[in-house]
Amino acid sequence: MNLPPTGRTAEELLAEVARLKEHDLPVRGGQVTAYVYDTGRAEVNDAAARAYFEMLEVNCLDPTAFPSVVEMERQVVGAVADELGGGHGIFTSGGTESIMLAVKAARDMGRRGRPDTGRPDVDRPHTGRPNIVVPVTAHPAFHKAAHYLGVEVTAVPVDLETYRVRAPDVAAAIDDDTILVVASAPSYPQGVIDPIEEVAALAAAAGVPCHVDACVGGWLLPWLRAAGAAVPPFDLSVPGVTSISCDLHKFGYAPKGASVVLFADPAMRRKAYFASAAWPGYTIINATVQSSRSAGPLGGAWATLQALGREGYLELGRATLEATRRLREGIAAIPGLRVLGEPESALVAFAGDGIDVFVLADEARGRGWFLQPQLSYAGIPANLHITVTGVTLAGVEAMLKVIADSAAAARERGPALLPEGLVELVADMDLEALDDATFAELAASVGVDLRQGAGQPQMAVVNAVLDALPAASREAVLVRFLSVVYGS
């Protein structure tokens, strides 16, 4: 984009924004079952948007300059701590940053702990490169944090019936260089809760901190429990759990850019901070990875919590619980589809028997609904993922009809057909040696137009190719995809 020779009016700019969003998935209404979270309450969205705008230009870099930041963060973090067993928290930009800070704190806190207390011991250094032990279903943000922070990842398989990690497998993976053990409440792919009490207990016995990734469930599971669901203990009240992450821009329904990470020990929270005095400029002390950052997301989160209150979240919890039950039962009744595991939250994944789920997803998109494809991995089959939100109940029957119709159409179409030799070609190709133009031509050969403004592509063939590749090749393809999409 070139700068215009003169400034443009707000009306012109908003018209251009509308044009640019022409092919975007809708963020309201419940027909997009991933990425966005909708209460179905316009007045809540409006309150959050207005508070977001009011705080937009406030900089969180220096809380002494903007005391409103301190007060809002205390209230938001305090509300989360009240629901998740107490602790000492930081407001962050999202789950990835919360997880990044939890891994940093564990790395910097010390290396191994004393088994009699389970507290990290800062006097005992690692003998090798530090590692974190995570289930294969743990969010890739842990891999990202490990990559950035110089930490290795030890991935542990899950039970292929329940999709939960097994505590003995976690125990076997812990070694002298383990700095953190991770469990999920719930894990995103199948929406099941790992055995938090068992995992935390064995981590404590080994003197290793335990982080619970409740980015999805942290602000959902308490309300599902209050609505009558059987939710096992998962938060900082569980002995051995030393930190927990909770996204407010998921089931807190706040605008994007809102998460909290809580630490049981304030000393561990301090290890998440960064300070530098090795320069002649202004004072540098950061609670997050970012330095300058807008207080807009904080204002939006604060307003959302205030606008809904306990009763509002409980009502949304009841609606979510009922919608999830009806969705699970409805999908199980569709020939050729099966729900994976026993989802304990508001995340439902289903696979196909004799039905290509990637084709089903394209069929659903053609009917105006987005179902999120998930590739096969570690023995877990390719599947489609649905996030149930507060607005889903009103449209659950319409969703089930679309899934049933799309499944029938996918069965009739058959699986996605891959060009002969394409998978082998991509697997053996040195993608680093390709320029972006050549990669774009390769994408076009399977029906994906990467030009700007090309609209929503049909993805069944692309997902089928990715599904047939090993993880490392998938990652290389995805990096090149992003490079071409954003261009120079």
Q: CATH homologous superfamily of the largest domain - what is it? A: Type I PLP-dependent aspartate aminotransferase-like (Major domain)
The CATH architecture term of the largest domain is 3-Layer(aba) Sandwich
Oligomeric form: single chain
What is the number of beta strands? 15
Helix count equals 16
Roughly how many Å is the radius of gyration? 23 Å
Mean pLDDT: 92
How would you describe the shape?
A: globular
- Secondary structure class reads alpha/beta
Strand order of the largest sheet: 1-9-8-7-6-4-5
Care to describe what's here?
The protein is of the alpha/beta class. The protein has three domains: 49-304, Aspartate Aminotransferase, domain 2 (3-Layer(aba) Sandwich); 313-413, Aspartate Aminotransferase, domain 1 (Alpha-Beta Complex), CATH 3.90.1150.10; 422-486, no CATH class. The protein contains 16 helices and 15 strands. A seven-stranded mixed β-sheet has the order 1-9-8-7-6-4-5, sandwiched between helices. Strands 12-13-15-14 form a four-stranded antiparallel β-sheet, covered by helices on one side. It has a two-stranded antiparallel sheet with strand order 2-3. A hairpin with an 8-residue loop joins β14 (372-374) and β15. α4 (95-109) crosses α5 (141-149), α11 (357-366) crosses α12 and α11 (357-366) packs antiparallel against α15 (460-468). The model is unreliable at 111-124 (pLDDT under 50).
Concise overview:
Helix content is 41%, strand content 13%.
Describe the SSE topology:
Layout: H1 10-20, H2 42-55, H3 67-83, E1 88-92, H4 95-109, E2 112-113, E3 120-121, E4 131-135, H5 141-149, E5 152-156, H6 167-173, E6 178-184, H7 196-205, E7 210-213, H8 221-226, E8 243-247, E9 259-263, H9 266-272, E10 274-276, E11 284-286, H10 296-332, E12 337-339, E13 347-352, H11 357-366, E14 372-374, E15 383-387, H12 396-413, H13 422-428, H14 436-444, H15 460-468, H16 471-486
Parallel strand pairs: 4-5, 4-6, 6-7, 7-8
Antiparallel strand pairs: 1-9, 2-3, 8-9, 10-11, 12-13, 13-15, 14-15
Helix pairs in contact: 2-10, 3-10, 4-5, 4-9, 10-12, 11-12, 11-15, 14-16
